[in-house]
Amino acid sequence: MKQIALGLKENWQQFALLILVNMLVGGMVGLERTVVPLVGTQEFNIQSDLVIFSFIIAFGVVKAFTNLISGVLADKYTRKKVLIAGWIVGLPVPFLLAFAPTWNWILLANILLGMSQGLAWSMTVNMKIDLVGKKSRGLAMGLNEAAGYGAVGLTALLTGYLAANYGLRPQPFYVGIVYTIAGLLLSIFVIKDTRAYTSLEATQSNSDLTEDKPSLWWVFKQTSYKDKNLFSISQAGLINNLNDGMSWGVFPLFFLSLNVSLEGIGWIKAIYPIVWGAGQIITGPLADKIGRKPLIVWGMFVQVFGHIIIGSQWLEPLTAGLIGSILLGLGTAMVYPALLAGVSDVANPLWRASSLGVYRFWRDMGYAIGALMAGIVANALSLTWAIHLAGLITFISGIIVWVNMSETKNLPTK
């Protein structure tokens, strides 16, 4: 058997292949960013914002619970098998989005998409962390999330272009068929399992390999509220995706009401995840250099300024949307790799996959909570107020991290 070693340089080929797979995973989410809310209003004539946002709620809840069990499944069946399962579950999604006869079929597509993302994206995260070891976690997560969310943005832009030129359906969703087939084939024939690297890291960090692995319930409590650092990280992750869930549903309808064109909305929806993705190439290694906490705190505050600009209507709508989305993307780029690296710093390698699953549970519940909050507030007040409320909640979350979290970069392994 070939001897293994931890490190990005030592495992760059497999790491690069996982980057490619994660781009395809992210592209599947990008399919929905621009077009699906407009399908609800223009094709199915749905008038309620809350009903329109129901597809995001379904996606977020299912993805959150799938994240929760993904680490347990990975430990039982290997990372690779769970990755392949994620792609198999996602195969029907682009077909359902392209040809769904009713809104309920769109909801079914998002249930399957949530399961697929919870399995596949979780495994690309865990596998990269496995490969690189402790020294380069921030860089690894920066590259991983840059690939995934860069693909989200580019696909959102592409689907906006296709929708403007060919109609809302089915053409924008054809790209998803290519993504699922390519992702499944790469995962089956090219990607190698990485669980052995976890055992190697545990040995090198003097973790007791003979001790019983704690239960998922123990890890859930530890990650959710017992450990103050993991609590701070989990709530910040939730609020980050609350912002994303809110913007996913609100922005297409908000800017359409301000007479922004479909292509303009596509650019607004694309620029957020593109900046978010590309920025992490810088912020990932920066988290390794200056620490996790500064990037998390200031990243939350930068997102607040993005909300202020978008919701203020001081500027021409397209300009405000683009500037605000750049700030949202920049703030999220600062936060995202630092959060993942922070969980990996605190959690023991033997239960790290489960802890990351719990963190991602709370983070992706933010999609559902953000969409639900936005739908209720938009129906009761306006879409503008939904944006303002998200900004206020983001500010409070940043204060919580500032006051409650310690720097985790050099914490000894538990």
Structural overview:
- It is a single chain.
- This protein is mainly α.
- The protein has one domain: MFS general substrate transporter like domains (Growth Hormone, Chain: A, Up-down Bundle).
- Helix content is about 80%, strand content about 0%.
- It is built from 17 helices and no strands.
- Helix 8 runs antiparallel to helix 15, helix 11 packs across helix 16 and helix 12 runs antiparallel to helix 15.
- The longest helix has 30 residues.
- The two termini are about 30 Å apart.
Keywords:
414 residues; globular; Growth Hormone, Chain: A; mainly alpha
Uncertain parts: none
Q: What count of structural domains? A: 1
Please give the largest β-sheet. none
Q: The CATH topology, please?
A: Growth Hormone, Chain: A
Count of individual beta strands: 0
- What is the 3D shape? globular
CATH superfamily: MFS general substrate transporter like domains
Level-2 CATH architecture: Up-down Bundle
End-to-end Cα distance, whole Å, is: 30 Å
User: Helix tally?
Assistant: 17
Estimated share of beta-strand residues: under 5%
| Structure class | mainly alpha
Q: How large is the radius of gyration?
A: 20 Å
Mean pLDDT across all amino acids: 88
Percent helix among the residues?
over 70%
Order of helices and strands: HHHHHHHHHHHHHHHHH
CATH top level is Mainly Alpha
Main location: membrane
GO molecular function, one term: transmembrane transporter activity
GO cellular component, one term: plasma membrane
Protein name: MFS transporter
